[in-house]
Structures are given as C-alpha cells and as structure tokens.
Design goal:
about 120 residues, alpha+beta, 4-stranded antiparallel sheet, 3-stranded antiparallel sheet, 2 helices, about 20% helix, globular
Length: about 120
C-alpha cells in the first residue's frame, strides 16, 4: 500500500482514538474505565452531514450510567441524567434524528436529543 492510501486510514484511526479520549465527565474525569467503547462512527456519510452518527457499545458486565458524560470537541453532546447502557447494548448519538430515522428506520436505540457540531471528514 502506498503512503497516500495509508493516510486516510491513519487519519481515521487517529480520529477514533481522539474521540475515545474526548469522552469525559463534566468534571473532567476519565471515561468509564474502558467498558464503553465507540463501536461505529459515520463521519462522512453519503447524503451529507445530517446522516452522521456515533455508536457506543457497552463491552462490560454491568449497566453503565452515562448521565453527565459528554462529547466536547468536534461534536457537542451531553448525555441526560436518565441515560444508561446495559451490558452488550448499543446506543447511537445522531446529528439529525429525522434524517437518521429515514435511513435506519429499524434502529430504536437512539440517545435523546441530537449533537451539535460535526464530525471531521
């Protein structure tokens, strides 16, 4: 693989890692000890930014309370106090809920509200 082909892949890996480190508590404490992971990022979807989303997965064995956790760079979103994620479950944070639902009508595990900002293409 030539260097120009490697750059987008490396950029995506760096971007994913930066998101993992940007999930912080309002108090600035570290993320949830590794049990909540970003399982999918749709950062440049066909149709434009309104179809962007970030999917979280609970790889742990206990339900995790997400209330107060936030994305704070690139996209801005704070999980409401009543949001939790059970073991083995997924949760999708979207930029535009109407557009997301039109493309993925069967997905019901959507976090309340939408984020502002945009994922870097």
């Amino acid at each position: 693989m030539n260097n120009s082909a490697k750059r987008p892949i490396l950029h995506l890996v760096e971007y994913i890692l930066s998101f993992i480190f940007l999930i912080v508590l309002s108090s600035g404490q570290p993320a949830l000890a590794g049990s909540i992971v970003i399982s999918e990022i749709s950062y440049n979807p066909i149709g434009g930014g309104d179809y962007e989303f970030v999917e979280l997965y609970n790889s742990g064995v206990v339900t995790e309370d997400l209330g107060g956790y936030q994305f704070s760079d690139g996209i801005v979103y704070t999980f409401p106090a009543d949001v939790s994620l059970t073991p083995g479950a997924y949760l999708v944070v979207v930029r535009n809920q109407l557009m997301f639902n039109s493309r993925y009508p069967g997905v019901l595990n959507i976090a309340p509200g939408v984020y502002t900002g945009a994922l870097d293409n």
